[in-house]
Amino acid sequence: MRLMLIGNPNVGKTTLFNSLTGANAHVGNWSGVTVDKLVGSIKKTNDELIDLPGTYSVTPSSEDEGVVTYALLNESYDGLLNIVDATHLKRNLHLTIQLLEANVPMLVAMNMMDALHRKGLNLNLEKLEKMLGVNGVLISARKNEGIDEVIHQLPALTLKKPFRLYYGITIETAISQILSLLSETPQHLDARWIAIQALEGNEGIYQSLSLANEVPIRAIVEETERKIINEKVALSLKGAIFNKRREFIHQLYRE
Ligand code: GDP
Ligand code: MG
Ligand code: K
């Protein structure tokens, strides 16, 4: 199996990568960018693990973050290992949602559980798994706790159900319009995810589209942005999408 490790900056990615792979990683590179590509093989199973640059969003705001979209579109992999800082759940789940929307098999490792416990807090994993529709493992990468459970769960890497967030009528209409233009998408990725990422302004997505699709899709995005601003839904289309995810995360947090 080939897996990609993905998460926000500073959430324990390198710590987890090292404890999963030991000292056998080698550095390669991504075509076209200067960012290193770290590849290791997971202890016991020999599954391949690719380290991706830390990012807050799939929609890139730097070369580093662009690698994430590039890898999701072009790398061959069987699934994702999303590492989350359990002490900053509200911030981290924005990326998790975008990965769930891509509809690829995934396991979520909730890291920093030691720090969460020290704060006197706990996390209802079952509830979280149910609301996100994905399996999770509670870990403390620095203390080497839960690592075996991650390795144990990887073969069953799964999405229990397609994850679908409702973005409101204006954005949903735009998604439908874009979907009707998308004749072919990379087969391992969800067409709805491509549409949402296009609406968010993910340039990596436009690069993967044919020009014949790109021009009309950009027109839909511009029109939708105008509507969002006119209807006073948000100050921008990107902001409107962000707000919907935040609402969902707050609801999840409450429960
Ligand atoms: P990366 O930027 O995502 O690669 O994160 P690092 O692996 O470099 O870790 C960032 C910081 O978090 C380091 O100081 C780690 O020692 C610390 N860290 C990683 N995992 C844990 C954990 O499970 N608990 C605690 N308390 N700290 C951790
Ligand atoms: Mg790191
Ligand atoms: K390169």
TrEMBL record:
It comes from the Bacteria. Residues 1-160 form the FeoB-type G domain. It is found in: Cell membrane. Belongs to the TRAFAC class TrmE-Era-EngA-EngB-Septin-like GTPase superfamily. FeoB GTPase (TC 9.A.8) family. Probable transporter of a GTP-driven Fe(2+) uptake system. This is Ferrous iron transport protein B. The gene is feoB. The chain holds residues 1 to 255 of 663 of the full protein.
